[in-house]
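User: Quick sanity check before I run a bigger batch. Here is a single chain. Can you write out its predicted 3D structure?
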Amino acid sequence: MEDIFNCEFPLNLSFKFGVDNQENMLTLENQQHILTVLREDWKRRQKLCTITLICYIVHMLYLLRFMSTRVDKSISHKLVGREQIRATLMQQLRETHRCRDILRMGPDAFLQLCEKLRATHQVRDTKHVTVEEQVARFLYIIAHNVKTRTVSFFYHRSGETVSRHFHAVLRAIILLEDEFLRQPSASIVSPAILHNHRFYPYFKDCIGAIDGTHFRVKVPIADQPKFRGRKDWPTQNVLAACDFDMKFTYVLTGWEGTASDSKVLKNALSGMIILNFHEENFTLGMLDLC
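Assistant: Done. Predicted structure follows.
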């Protein structure tokens, strides 16, 4: 029994517990130290990320400003180049013989037409487009039957701009119908007849000539059969009259290609826009109009 009480086990156990407490205390201190180090490292990384982000933002702002300056310069150079091309083209049309080939009228007639259309206030000069350019594009389209995209390429304009200006010029020309289409007077003999001994006095009462012609048109598929007459494609049968000065005095449009010339003529004599005839006058015409 004395050996049992005199054993060293309790002393060793107490020593072991003391060592464990010291190790636990050291472990706790190590953990706190590690947490402190990690916290400081985290703060340092936050600062580094913030500085890096600010540098990226400043760099991107610089690039955006630099690129916008370059883009503005390139766009301005392109605009100046396009304006020079258009100015050169319009100058050639006004001052050379090419005006009649391209627009089907001489430079003087072209400028007079532009002034008449400008007076209607349907066609106006804008900051970037003159009336002359709008009228030139319109005449080029109707003279050569070209597409809007073709004109937009040569004039460096968008298709929407070309189409909008085309319809503006068209409306202005329609307003000048009474000035362009004047039916001849019954009491006035044309100078082309009066001063030509071959025609005078035999044709002194003749006021002009009339005839019909077919113009190709685009209509909905459902309406194409009644517009397809003599041709393989849809057309309008248009009646026109002109005097001996080679000026049109009457035009009737809208009839289908299947309509006969005599039917169109009857409509011209009794329709809303009447072709004037006088008892003492006569008009030259083709036999198929009778």
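Confidence is low (pLDDT under 50) at residues 1-17, 71-77.

User: Great, the batch can go ahead then.
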